[in-house]
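So, can you check this record?

>
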Amino acid sequence: MSSGIALAVENLTVAYGDIQAVKGILFEVREGEIFTLVGANGAGKTSTLRALSGMLRRGGEVRLFGRDLRGLPAEAIVSAGLAHVPEGRRIFGPLTVSENLRLGAWIRRGQRAAVAADIERMFALFPRLRERREQLAGTLSGGEQQMLAVARALMSDARMLVLDEPSMGLAPRLVKELYAVLREINRAGVTLLLVEQNAHLALRLADRAAVLETGRITATGTGASLLQDPRVREAYLGT
């Protein structure tokens, strides 16, 4: 496999009892790119991300920067360089912003100075979090909580982020702000795999993308080409 491949997925399957949610999909994410999966509710997008992150039992082969992830628990996958920003943020509400960030670095034991430097780097990326560093995370606005969820994931020293519906429930101004930071994170060398229902937003951001329908990939291409695909426009863009 080329050293330029961050994530290689082959014949990925996910089942809930007798119901197969992901049906043997295949795709690759290149190092340094932004790749997005778009699709309707129930298409299998969240199941795909959770399976890649070791949160769901899966079939098929997954390689992260050349390493076979079969049999690895979620914490080992984080250590291998993949961090998950879940749908719904899942921040620790009773803890402060700073405490949430430190928890994001739990795999980096013995790296106190580097962790402290990375917390300051997160505050530079997300100035609102610096202003609220000692505020309880549960009292933040929805946009601030999403920023904290992304920053917390980066604290694991991730080489790749998978993000599940990061724009959900956010005002357009905050979505624009968040996506600008995601571009900055990507320019710094972090590979992004993004799941979004907002296909127009996601495809404008993505270098490459795939359309997921009822557990199967039905189209792939650059973000720009899928924005112009008549089938995608009719199904997901309302045009």
The CA atoms of residues 19 and 177 lie 38 Å apart. The beta strands are 5-16, 19-30, 34-38, 59-64, 67-68, 82-85, 160-164, 191-196, 208-213, 216-222. The chain is about 40% helix and 25% strand. The chain has a mean pLDDT of 93.
